[in-house]
Structures are given as structure tokens and as C-alpha cells.
Amino acid sequence: MDTEASPEPIRFDTKIAVLLRADLEPWQRLNVTSFLVSGLGTQLPEVIGEPYEDADDVPYLPMFRQPVMVFEAAKETLTTAHARALSRALPRAVFTSDLFATGNDRDNRAAVRAVPTADLDLVGLAVYGPRNAVDKVVKGARMHP
């Protein structure tokens, strides 16, 4: 039996949250989540941990240093969450329904660019920031089952 005390759990003062529209198909949920979190890692280096390595010294890419909390909500809650993220100036990524019809980054960006903020048909939102601010953004949503 290991008599060494377990280290204290790591607590983060920040949070990564993904909010998905509840009416998405399972494949869409996975696709949207993947795309959304990729945006956070490219612009916020502090969310990325150290590279991994197995016992045979085989290297692996680094990943987020903290959990990604995934929520779901109705379209209206997602729209409200987006407005809250904007008003708090939190780093965010969006995925709109138009992106399901595109097949590359250039067309994705053009599809978002063509629509005014208030008219975006959001199906997903990723947000990062202080835990309490992110909690306020996703208020009204529930944890993804």
C-alpha cells in the first residue's frame, strides 16, 4: 500500500466551455465540438499543457491542460450565451449552421463573414476565461449527457 499522501487536485481559476444546440445530430455534436476547441488552442497558448510521452519515450502532442466542459441548450439560450460572451469580451469561437454545408476553412470563414452578428444561426459556441465569467455565459444550459 502506498503510504505517500496523494497530491492535492489541481484547481483552475479558468474554464473552457463548449455550448451546443440541443437539436444537433450526434455526428454534428462531435464535429462542432472539435472545430470549436481547435480555435481556443491556436490563440490561447496558456490553455495547452506539456507534450506527452509514454514509457518507451514515444512523444505525443500536447493537449489542453484542463477539462473541457460541454453543455447543451436550446437555440435561444445559445444566442443569449453568445451575447454574454461578447459583452464580457471573452475569447470565443462560433460554429453556425451554414458551416455544415461548407467543406473548408476558406468557405467556413466566408459563411460567418456574410452574416451580421445578431443574425448568426449558432449551433455551437466555445468560450474561455475566468471560471465565474464562463459560468455566467453558459447559465441556463445543462451539462451534455
Blueprint of the fold:
Elements: E1 14-21, H1 26-43, E2 52-53, E3 59-60, E4 68-73, H2 75-87, E5 92-96, H3 105-113, E6 122-130, H4 131-137, E7 142-143
Parallel strand pairs: 1-4
Antiparallel strand pairs: 1-6, 2-3, 4-7, 5-6
Helix pairs in contact: 2-4
Shape: globular
Question: What's the mean pLDDT score?
Answer: 93
Which blocks of ≥5 consecutive residues have pLDDT under 50? none
Secondary structure: number of strands = 7
* Adjacency order of strands in the biggest sheet: 5-6-1-4-7
Strand content: 15-25%
Q: Helix count, per DSSP?
A: 4
Please describe the structure with a list of short key phrases separated by commas or semicolons.
single chain, 145 residues, alpha+beta, 5-stranded mixed β-sheet, two-stranded antiparallel sheet, 32% helix
What does this structure look like?
- With 145 residues, the chain is an alpha+beta fold.
- 32% of the residues lie in helices and 23% in strands.
- It has helices at residues 26-43, 75-87, 105-113, 131-137, and strands spanning 14-21, 52-53, 59-60, 68-73, 92-96, 122-130, 142-143.
- A 5-stranded mixed β-sheet has the order 5-6-1-4-7, with helices on both faces. It has a two-stranded antiparallel sheet with strand order 2-3.
- α2 (75-87) packs antiparallel against α4.
- The radius of gyration is 17 Å and the shape is globular.
